[in-house]
UniProtKB/TrEMBL annotation:
<dbReference type="InterPro" id="IPR016181">
    <property type="entry name" value="Acyl_CoA_acyltransferase"/>
</dbReference>
<protein>
    <submittedName>
        <fullName>Acetyltransferase</fullName>
    </submittedName>
</protein>
<feature type="domain" description="N-acetyltransferase">
    <location>
        <begin position="1"/>
        <end position="160"/>
    </location>
</feature>
<dbReference type="GO" id="GO:0016747">
    <property type="term" value="F:acyltransferase activity, transferring groups other than amino-acyl groups"/>
</dbReference>
<dbReference type="Pfam" id="PF00583">
    <property type="entry name" value="Acetyltransf_1"/>
</dbReference>
<keyword id="KW-0808">Transferase</keyword>
<dbReference type="InterPro" id="IPR000182">
    <property type="entry name" value="GNAT_dom"/>
</dbReference>
Length: 218
C-alpha cells in the first residue's frame, strides 16, 4: 500500500471508499457522487492524500488551509494559518490496519512544513474516530447537538391545494405562511435543551483543535 497525493484518475474509487466508509458510521448522510473541489474563496491550500492498494483507493484524507484573513477571524481558534479537517475515510475491508494513522502522519508532516498553527476537526459520536483524534493530540473544545425534528411548542401547519393557481397554500393559525420546515435540523448548544423537541434523530457533534509550533520540518 502506498500513500500518494490524490489525482483525478482515482475519483471514482475515492467516492466509493468514502461512501462505503460512511455508510454505517455517524456520517451516513455525507455520501457525495463526485469528489468535492476546494473552495478557493475560503481556502488557500490543500493536503489531499490517498492510500492505494492494487490501484484502488482504500483510504483518503483531505485537509484544507484557510486564507489568512479567514484564519485570523476563525472563532474556534483564531491564528495566522488554520487548517480544516475535511475528509477521512478508510474502506471497510481495510479498516483497523493503521491506514488512517499513516495518512495522518504524512498529512501532519505537510502541515508542519506549511507552518500551520492549528488544525480544526469536526466529528460526531463514534468511538473509533474520536479515539483517533484524541490519540493524535486533538483537544475537545466544544460540543453541540444536531436535532432532526420539530419544536414541541410550534403550532402545526396545514395545507390546501389551490388548483386554479397550480400551487399549495400553507397556513398556520389561519394565516398563510410562505413556507414550512419539514423535519427541521436545529443546532442545539446544551444537551438539556433537546427536550424542547419532538425528535426524529439526534447527532452529537464534537470539535477538536490540535495546535502546532510554527516551525519548518527539518
Amino acid at each position: 500500500m502506498n500513500i500518494i497525493p490524490y489525482s483525478p484518475e482515482y475519483e471514482k474509487s475515492w467516492v466509493y471508499t468514502k461512501a462505503l466508509s460512511h455508510l454505517f458510521s455517524p456520517f451516513f448522510d455525507d455520501m457525495p457522487r463526485e469528489k468535492e473541489q476546494m473552495n478557493t474563496d475560503i481556502y488557500q491550500d490543500q493536503i489531499d492524500l490517498i492510500a492505494v492498494e492494487c490501484d484502488q483507493v482504500v483510504g483518503l484524507l483531505t485537509i484544507n488551509i484557510f486564507h489568512k484573513t479567514i484564519s485570523q477571524s476563525y472563532r474556534y481558534y483564531p491564528a495566522d494559518k488554520v487548517a480544516y479537517f475535511e475528509n477521512l475515510a478508510v474502506h471497510p475491508d481495510y479498516q483497523n490496519q493503521g491506514i488512517a494513522s499513516q495518512l495522518f502522519e504524512e498529512a501532519e508532516r505537510q502541515l508542519k512544513a506549511k507552518e500551520v498553527d492549528a488544525l480544526a476537526i469536526f466529528t460526531r459520536d463514534g468511538a473509533s474516530a474520536n479515539h483517533l483524534y484524541q490519540k493524535w493530540g486533538g483537544q475537545l473544545i466544544a460540543q453541540d447537538y444536531l436535532v432532526v425534528g420539530n419544536l414541541k411548542t410550534e403550532e402545526p401547519f396545514t395545507f390546501e391545494v389551490l388548483s386554479d393557481e397550480g400551487r399549495l397554500r400553507f397556513s398556520r393559525n389561519g394565516q398563510e405562511i410562505p413556507y414550512y420546515q419539514r423535519e427541521g435540523i436545529y443546532v442545539v448548544s446544551k444537551e438539556e435543551d433537546i427536550d424542547l423537541f419532538d425528535i426524529e434523530a439526534v447527532y452529537h457533534e464534537k470539535t477538536y483543535i490540535k495546535t502546532y509550533e510554527n516551525s519548518e520540518v527539518e
